[in-house]
Amino acid sequence: MKKIEEQSEMNKVGKTKTLVVFIGTIFLGYVLFIIPDVFFGVTKINGGKIGINLLFIGLFQFITVTALLYFSLKILKKKFRDIGLRFENLGKDILLGTFFGGVWTMLQFAFIIPNTGGANRPDINGMLDMYDGSLVGTISFVALGVIGGGITEEIFNRGYFINVLKEIFKNPKTGLWFSAILSILLFALGHMPVNTLDWFDILVPTILYTILFIWTKRLTASMVAHGVYNASAIILTYSIYFH
Fold first, then answer.
1. Which of 27, 157, 220, 232 has the CB geometry, 3.0–4.6 Å to 93, for a possible disulfide?
2. Three-state SS for 21?
3. Contact, 212 vs 224, CB < 8 A?
4. pLDDT digits (tens, 9 = 90+) for 113-131
5. Taking 70 as the threshold, does the pLDDT of residue 12 lie above it?
C-alpha cells in the first residue's frame, strides 16, 4: 500500500513538472515566433517584412524554436523522435502530404478565394504587401512559408504541443483529443481570424494537419501538407494577383 502511494506521489510530481515545462515552453515559443515579425515590422530595416528579410524571419524561427524544444525535451528526458519527428515510411508521408496539401490549394485558388473577394481579401492584400517583385524576394517568401510554417510550426504546434500535453492525463485518449483540440484552437487564434471566412480558412487546414499527424503518428505528412500549401499559396498569389 505504501509503495503504491509513493508511486502515485512520484507520478504527480512528474505530471506537475511536465505541465510547468510545457507551459513555459509554449509561452517562450510564441514569443520567439513573434520577435522577428515585430523587429522587421517596427524597425523597417532593409524594407521591413519583405524580400530577403522573410528568409531571415523563417531561419530565426526555425533555429530558436527548435533549440528551445531541444532543451525542453531534454529536461523531460525526451527526444524529437518522441514527439513524432521520425522518417519511417517517408515516401508514403510525402505522398499523403502532397495530396492533401495540393487538394486544399486547389479548393482555395480555384473556388474559395476567387468567390470571396480575390485580390480584395485582407489576407491576399497582406501577402501582396510582402512581395518585392524580385526572384530572391519570392524565394525568401516561399522559404518562410516552408521553414517557418511547414516545418517549425508543425514541430512546435503539433508534435511538441500534443505529445507532451497529453501525458498529464490519466486517460491517454482523453489526453490526446484534449491536446489536439486545444492545439487547433490556439494555432487558429495565433493567425488572428476576425470573421467567419478567416476561421474557415485556418481551421480546415489546421484540422487536416492534425488528423494527418494523429493518423500517422509522425510529423512528416503534416509537415509536407503544410509546406506544400504554404509554398503553393505564395507562388499562386504572386502569379495571379501581384502586378
1. 220
2. helix
3. no
4. 999 999 999 999 999 999 9
5. no
